[in-house]
Amino acid sequence: MKHLALTVSIFLFGLTAADAVPFVFIVRHAEKATTGGNDPDLSDAGRKRADALARILKNSQITSVFVTEFKRTQETAAPLATAAHLTPTIIPAKDVPALVVKLRALNGNALVVGHGNTIPDLVKELGIATPITIPEDDYTEIFVVSLADPPQLLRLHYPL
Fold first, then answer.
1. Which of 11, 18, 44, 79 matches a 20 to 30 Å C-alpha distance to 109?
2. How far apart are CA 134 and CA 147, in angstroms?
3. Residue 156: enclosing H or E segment and its boundaries?
4. Cβ contacts of residue 40 below 8 Å, gap of 6+?
C-alpha cells in the first residue's frame, strides 16, 4: 500500500510540476453485498476497500467527487469525501457524457467512482485510446487520467 501511494505521489508530482493540469482518479465501486437487489450496500470487504482508497488518495488534493445514483458508488467514495469535507456530485450511471463535461471543467483533481461497464467508456471519452476492460470480480484498479493535452493514463492496483 505504501508503494502504491509513493508511485502515485511521484507520478502526480512530475505531471503537476510540468503542466498543472487536473487529475481524475477513476475507480470501480468496491465489493458489494450479495443481498440488496439492484442497489446493494458494500460488503465488509468493500467497506475495507473504501477505507483503503481514502488512505491512498488522502494527499491527492481531491477537490471534487463524482458518484452514481447507486449506494455502492456513494459508499465507496464516502470515507474520502468525509475526510476531504466534500459533498459528492451524483451523476446518473448511464450519463457518461454529462460526467465528461463536468470533468473537463475542473480546476482541481477529482475522484470518480463508477461501474465496471461505464469506466471503459469514460476513459475513452476522456481521450485515452487504450481500450479498458474490467473483469467482473476485479475491484482493485485505480485509473489516473491527467487531463493534459494529450491526456495520459496511469493504471494502478490496490489489493487488500
1. 44
2. 22
3. strand 152-157
4. 32, 33, 34, 71, 72
Q: How far apart are CA 45 and CA 137, in angstroms?
A: 13
Distance of alpha carbon 42 from alpha carbon 47, whole angstroms: 6
CA atoms within 13 A of residue 142's CA, in its CB half-sphere: 26
The C-alpha atoms of residue 128 and residue 153 are separated, in whole angstroms, by 7
Grid coordinates standing for 19?
503542466
Q: What is the mean pLDDT of residues 72-97?
A: 98
Strand 62-67, strand 89-90: pairing: parallel
Kindly write down the DSSP assignment for every residue of 83-151, as one continuous string.
Answer: HHT-PPEE--TT-HHHHHHHHHT-SSEEEEEE-TTTHHHHHHHTT--S-----TT---EEEEEE-SSS-
DSSP state of 32: B
| Contact by Cβ (8 Å): 137, 90 | no
Model confidence pLDDT, tens digit, residues 6-55: 455 545 554 444 457 999 999 999 999 999 899 999 999 999 999 999 99
**pTM (2 d.p.):** 0.88
Phi, psi of 139 (to 5 degrees): -120, 15
